[in-house]
Amino acid sequence: MVRLSRLQRAAPLLMAVVLASATTACTHRTSQGATVALDPDQDDGLGGTGIESGDVRAAADQIARALLKDNRPTKVAILPVENHTRFRIDAALVHDHLTHDLSRHSRGRFGVVQVKRGQQPTTAQAVLRTDLRSLTKERGDTTSDYVTYFFALEDPEDGSVLWTGMYETKRRSDVDVVYR
Amino acid sequence: MTRLLSASLLVALAALGGGCAMAKEARLGLEEGVQPRYVERITSEVGGPVEIHCGIGEACVEVKVVHVQRDLEGGVEVTLQNRTESAVAVQLSLEGFDDKRRRTDRSGFHDVVLAPRGQQVLALATAVENDDVLVLHLRPRVGA
């Protein structure tokens, strides 16, 4: 009977370990762990029918671009956003994105004045008012929400409307989510 | 037995080093062959050329860019057509590049929802100059 050396006896196990390591090394290096970083323009997959990060970004981007294209350079005061929807979100998200996108796209042509709640814009030649509103329908577990983002550029002297913009979404889902 | 062990060690080392990258390159190349990237070049009546880029080519087969209209002030209107018999949702982003391939503008992704066999227009004001190359990025809107 041939006696096996210690190395020969351990060889099958060693080979298995080495090949398993090689296979593991060839999995996706760029895949993510338990916490997944998401593109804020993409849906998070949690469901719900309300305001998404992509809506905040798209609405601000679209409206800032349209406002700059359609109006002569001026000093705009951005009023605090009024959120009348059933979704409990920090409306300053929309306000901050609008301020950022207006500043970024105008490249200094438009002056942007931030107005805090309760303050009156004193130096602006126009004020931008933003209202978020929603229409909700439910049947059983299914909910649909129509959400509008209304933007109005107004003359601070007499309140006349100089320009308007609208962004809207409508979504239906069987998955209800909680906004915190 | 010692030789076999040495050989498997060599294979593993190759896989851990350059071999794995090569194997992955081949596999991803094959996957891209089955599901190719989609790039289409079209011309609009006003302005420079327009390129349509699709990471997932299938999305650009289901939803076609049927018309791109540019105006002299940077305004862009993209008309999309749903070729399927289901309602679909895609996301569209715009980029502009000058003749030195420097980016002149980049928008975020905007949702476009299309009824079955329907058309929808996305209008966006841009800082893209008239002669710049306009690049449209189209991707499916992945939802829950």
Could you give the topology of this structure?
The complex is a heterodimer of chains A (180) and B (144).
Chain A: H1 6-25, H2 53-70, E1 75-78, E2 82-83, H3 92-106, E3 111-114, E4 126-139, E5 142-154, E6 161-173
Parallel strand pairs in A: 1-3, 1-4, 2-4
Antiparallel strand pairs in A: 4-5, 5-6
Chain B: H1 2-34, E1 38-43, E2 49-54, H2 57-62, E3 63-70, E4 75-82, E5 88-97, E6 103-106, E7 110-114, E8 119-125, E9 133-140
Parallel strand pairs in B: 2-9
Antiparallel strand pairs in B: 1-2, 3-4, 4-8, 5-6, 5-7, 5-9
What labels describe this entry?
heterodimer; A: 180 residues; alpha/beta; six-stranded mixed sheet; 3 helices; 6 strands; 29% helix; B: 144 residues; three-stranded antiparallel sheet; 9 strands; globular
Architecture overview:
- The complex is a heterodimer of chains A (180) and B (144).
- Chain A has 180 residues and is of the alpha/beta class.
- Chain A contains 3 helices and 6 strands.
- In chain A, helix 2 crosses helix 3.
- Chain B contains 2 helices and 9 strands; from the N terminus they run αββαβββββββ.
- In chain B, a hairpin with a 4-residue loop joins strand 3 and strand 4.
- Chain B has 144 residues and is of the alpha+beta class.
- Chain B has helices at 2-34, 57-62, and strands at 38-43, 49-54, 63-70, 75-82, 88-97, 103-106, 110-114, 119-125, 133-140.
- In chain B, strands 1, 2, 5, 6, 7 and 9 form a 6-stranded mixed β-sheet that branches.
- The termini of chain B are far apart.
- The interface between A and B is medium-sized, with 37 and 32 residues.
Order of helices and strands of chain B: HEEHEEEEEEE
Please state the structural category of chain B: alpha+beta
Rg over CA atoms of chain A: 27 Å
Evaluate the radius of gyration of chain B. Answer: 21 Å
Q: What is the helical fraction of chain B, as a range of percent?
A: 25-40%
How many helices of chain B does DSSP assign? 2
